Amino acid sequence: MSAPLREPEPQGATPAIVTTPTEREIRIERVFEAPRERVWQAFTEPESVAQWWGRGNRLDIERLEVERGGHWRFVEHGPEGDSGFEGRFREVSPPDRLVQTFEWDGMPGYVAVNTAEFVDLGDGRTKVVTTSLFHTPEERDGMLQSGMEGGLNQSYEALDRLLARQP
Amino acid sequence: MSAPLREPEPQGATPAIVTTPTEREIRIERVFEAPRERVWQAFTEPESVAQWWGRGNRLDIERLEVERGGHWRFVEHGPEGDSGFEGRFREVSPPDRLVQTFEWDGMPGYVAVNTAEFVDLGDGRTKVVTTSLFHTPEERDGMLQSGMEGGLNQSYEALDRLLARQP
User: Is the pLDDT confidence value at A1 over 60?
Assistant: First the structure.
């Protein structure tokens, strides 16, 4: 018998809750089975980010300067080609708040501001609430229609697996 | 007799007209005494930009990739220190429309979208209309209160002088 090729899904993984609090925002809420410091590390350390952000696709972390004013840039190598993403950090307040801009090479100059809040649930779990603010309702709607939600859930499931491997 | 140290001001230079069409926008209108192609060049060629954008301060053009998706980054060396500015081009449509993001190192992650329209007035003059869109009214108001208008008029007067030297 050989080991299974696919890693088991962690128990209790549920899709992210995606809502639209205003016409220019998207709010995403998701609970992870790990303490807050560990989830913070997974969002901010390059070797961790590379293991989940690309949803199983190879991800090159070209820049990840986690400090106010620092830049980040990732290139995801997927079956349909390469996609670059980049932005800059507005606020870095470990372990509970990270604010950064987000821009996809496919729509350069369209910039969302992503605010991630890491909430310690007190039972070893962490809730991550991300709010994205766009310049216009049309840009927000374009993001919603881009397949973002499916991609996000794939990323977060990869993060579940990473957190389960490295408790 | 030696030549005057200061260059003469061109005749007819008037301050830019600054208005606020919505709570998240600033609109700036200014007429230049030069044909549209010449004004377009002054906004897009590094050797020209370096002569006016910094209002007389030394300006390093670190990047100026004038194409969709291209990045720009300038560092102004003023008497009170260095200031970095950067962004990315969303749309480049010579000679009449340039859309790019704008961010100042002093407030990283606060991104405005600047749309510049170059209007041929038909008499050898060009009107430049720039509209800046911010994520929030507070960011817009912060820009208005930053001394932007004075700095802008200094830049545009330096541009008048450049255009008068290179007709």
Answer: no
Closest alpha carbon within chain B to A87 = B109
Determine whether the interchain pair A109/B113 forms a contact, defined as Cβ–Cβ distance below 8 Å: yes
Please, which residues have CB within 8 angstroms of residue B22's CB and are 6 or more apart in sequence? none
Question: What tokens does A57 get?
Answer: 């696709």
pLDDT value at position A14? Answer: 84
List A114's β-bridge partners, or say none.
A100, A132
Residue-wise pLDDT tens digits, B72-99: 999 999 998 999 999 999 999 999 999 9
Short-list A38, A52, A21, A12, CA closest to A115: A21
Q: Which of A101, A115, A132, A138 to mutate to test the interface with B (most CBs of B within 10 A)?
A: A101
Considering only CB atoms, B68 lies closest to which of A91, A108, A135, namely A108
Kindly report, residue by residue over B13-48, the tens digit of the pLDDT: 689 999 999 999 999 999 999 999 999 999 999 999
Q: Which residues of chain A have a CB within 8 Å of the CB of B90?
A: 108-110
The residue among B30, B34, B31, B59 whose CA lies nearest residue B47 is: B59
Each residue's pLDDT tens digit, B98-118: 999 999 999 999 999 999 999
Cα distance between residue A71 and residue A126, in whole Å = 26
Cβ contact A111–B108 (<8 Å): no
Contact B110 A90 (CB under 8 A): yes
Band of residue A12 on the pLDDT scale cut at 50, 70, 90: low
